[in-house]
Amino acid sequence: MPIERPNISQLQQLAGELHLQISESEAAEYLALMQPNLDAYDLIDGLSDEVPTVKYPREKGYRPEGEENSLNAWYYKSEVQGAQQGVLVGKTVVLKDNISLAEVPMMNGASSLEGHVPAFDATVVTRLLDAGATILGKATCEHFCLSGGSHTSEPAPVHNPWRKGHSAGGSSSGSAALVAAGEVDMAIGCDQGGSIRIPSAFCGTYGMKPTHGLVPYTGIMPIEATIDHAGPITANVKDNALMLEVMAGPDGLDPRQYISRGGSYIAELDKGVRGLKIGVVTEGFQLPNLQPQLAEKVRNAIARLESLGALVGEVSVPGHQLAAALWSPIGCEGLTMQMMHGNGMGFNWEGLYDVPLLDKHAGWRDSADTLSPSLKICMLIGQFGLKHYNGRYYAKAQNLARRARADYDRAFDDFDLLVMPTVPVTAPPLPQPNCSLTEYISKAFEMIGNTAALDVTGHPAMSVPCGLVDGLPVGMMLIGRHYAESTIYQAAAAFEASGNWQEM
């Protein structure tokens, strides 16, 4: 079916949007010259898309309600049985609802995307199924993944399984809540500012943000390609390492994967920490909203690692605070360009595009007022930087990210791992539906002070539960060199084996 051709007045309007002035006669001449190019569009329109085939059948599924979804953590239930053999046979998995699962609805926490049904499975989904996992469905996530709190998801906030009425953390809120509640063994989360580690810290799960590019993001709705990460959320270290082994490695379709890496992580779990050098990052304990009791729990956990034979010392990483500041122009201008102006896909990269998702998400402009305030403020910051400063601060921030990364790398000259609190607070109460704009936005970003920096530098970082404060979990964040996830797992497994974290 031929695409619609513009007429003369439409072409003059398009020219105006490009700051051009053309006469009617010029427009007519341009139109005639454009026809061979538009014929190419016709050719493309008539061809079938190049997308992966769906390997495993799946149930039609449904959206659970009432007691079946008491935490609001499920978006959609649809069982997909994986291969009959593999390392994940018998393991159940839930997917964050920005991850494509063919023939199953995907909403990404936002009503404007409701009704979208992906046509293919994300690479990580296929890998899990090939390894024998059983996928049980999709977990609720925050509104286009732009919140560290769990109050921005539509149609209702996600509750913490440790205490209803409190935040489960975001943006992989349902993923961590369902693992912590024991409804699934494993979950996939995604992390651009802390969205795997924050809900893991709030809910008491193990959440790994791998090295940038280690896990393919193909088939997952992005926010900003340079800070997009996907990784496992589990109830124990072994499952986490096993899941990452299955998901890691290049797929040839994700431009984030500029180095071919994978790894065997299970082999590291029994090595212990004797002789391992762990640096306590001074800046990680300097957040203005750090709860003293939470900081004490993390320091007690570090002392426990030391009692197991680790060599512990303090270290300053000035790039930690720099990287946290760099997140604003990179995250806000980047998401405004890629996720909003670029309709979720953006431009200038080779790989697998989800064309129907692009078409569906383009409709955000028709209901922009319904976007969450946490997304709106990022868009306003991003648009301001793009319009008034031509993106120069995004560009400079990307340059300065190398300085922040180098500061971390210098710390790794002396230490094998770095450690700090994952988040500065335990899970706070969910804001009321009629709360102020200030409270709504503050509760979305008050906890990202330590986590966002590692999205900018790309280093792997894992939240490990290490105690309770007033009955709510505390997370300790272990940070490794690029592609040194195995060292993180080594320390996390030793800590896990040393005692019940809930009693520490």
UniProtKB/TrEMBL annotation:
Domain Amidase per the UniProt entry, residue ranges: 75-488
Molecular function via GO: catalytic activity
Coiled coil: none
Keywords assigned by UniProt, alphabetized: Plasmid
Domain of life of the organism encoding this protein: Bacteria
Pfam families: Amidase
SUPFAM superfamilies the record matches: Amidase signature (AS) enzymes (SSF75304)
Protein name per its UniProtKB record: Amidase
